[in-house]
Write a structure and sequence with these properties.
This protein has 79 residues and is an alpha+beta fold. It contains 3 helices and 4 strands, in the order E-H-E-H-E-E-H. Helix 1 crosses helix 3 (68-78). It is globular, with a radius of gyration of 11 Å.
Amino acid sequence: MKIEVLGTGCMKCKRLAKNVDVAVAELGISAEVEKVEDITAIMDRGVMLTPALMVDGELKVSGRVADVKEIKEILQGAN
């Protein structure tokens, strides 16, 4: 599973990345987590609002910080 956290490095982006790390650890799953901070790379993915969360290339959350519970639900649905 590939998880991408998209954001330019703002506090909300960092909080989303931290929530993703906690969710992955609590679920005990194997996942590649990548932080994408390049604005061109973010726009190439069709994301206009950050922070954003993509799982296996599919946009799951955009423009807000998902909490750990929501991320766990998303990741469990992606399995």
